[in-house]
Design a protein that fits this description.
The longest helix is centred in the first third of the chain and has 18 residues. The chain has a single domain, classed as 3-Layer(aba) Sandwich (Rossmann fold). It is built from 7 helices and 10 strands. The strands form 3 sheets. A 6-stranded mixed beta sheet has the order 7-6-5-8-9-10. A two-stranded antiparallel sheet has the order 1-4. It has a two-stranded antiparallel ribbon with strand order 2-3. It is an alpha/beta fold. Helix 3 links the parallel strand 5 and strand 6. The chain is globular and about 55 Å long. Helix 1 crosses helix 6.
Length: 210
């Protein structure tokens, strides 16, 4: 039986959520240049894949965080999936903005939860981990008991691993970069030359392409 990690990686490749552009690399918000881009928002457009990912996330959350009381999505990429998960689990849902609104209430957290509620943060993907951990810190300052972060995909960068360790925050993902590249090679989505480029980029993503 194929693992969830492999199945999720396959589905991301099948719906073309993963894109390669080695000659004209993608530029991330952080300024890093990348030959690969994982756009998990495409999951929302494919009902069968959307349902599979939602169910897999629900199972992962219940397994890793059985005392969860509230689901919190990280804006904006994880709002929709977070809401789907919360609905499936019949839990309250909130989402966390990257910064306070400049109008209205000026809130970062949209929605409400009781003090000391057990919260699981949902993220679509983890690169440096900054967005997810910023949301974690915000929730803690609002008296939430954050159990950990659950994400669809992680690039498995050392910088993210160290950041989560420093924050003493658990992270569980459905799949990761290694699974994705392995499946892409097996299914002939990428050539041997592209695999080599992706391996080199993975070692020094902050300086690659400069």
């Amino acid at each position: 039986m194929e693992s969830v990690e492999k199945k999720v990686a396959q589905k991301l490749l099948e719906i073309e959520a993963v894109q390669l552009s080695i000659e004209k690399p993608f530029e991330w918000v952080s300024g890093w240049k990348s030959p690969i881009y994982c756009d998990n928002r495409k999951i929302l457009s494919i009902p069968q894949v959307r349902g599979y990912i939602r169910n897999a996330m629900c199972e992962s959350i219940l397994h890793n965080y059985p005392t969860v009381q509230v689901i919190a999505g990280v804006a904006t990429g994880a709002i929709a999936m977070g809401a789907l998960i919360a609905d499936k689990l019949n839990k309250p849902f909130v989402y966390v903005r990257p910064r306070r609104k400049e109008h209205g209430t000026g809130a970062r957290i949209e929605g409400t939860f009781p003090d000391k509620a057990n919260v699981v943060v949902v993220e679509d993907l983890i690169s440096t981990g900054h967005s997810a951990l910023s949301a974690v810190d915000c929730l803690k300052m609002s008296y939430a008991n954050v159990l950990g972060v659950s994400a669809i995909f992680s690039y498995n960068f050392d910088i993210a691993r160290r950041a989560f360790e420093k924050s003493n925050c658990e992270l569980h993902t459905l799949t990761n970069y290694e699974n994705l590249i392995e499946e892409a090679a097996l299914k002939n989505f990428i050539s041997p030359e592209q695999i080599e480029t992706l391996k080199i980029w993975r070692l020094t993503p902050n300086t690659w392409g400069q």
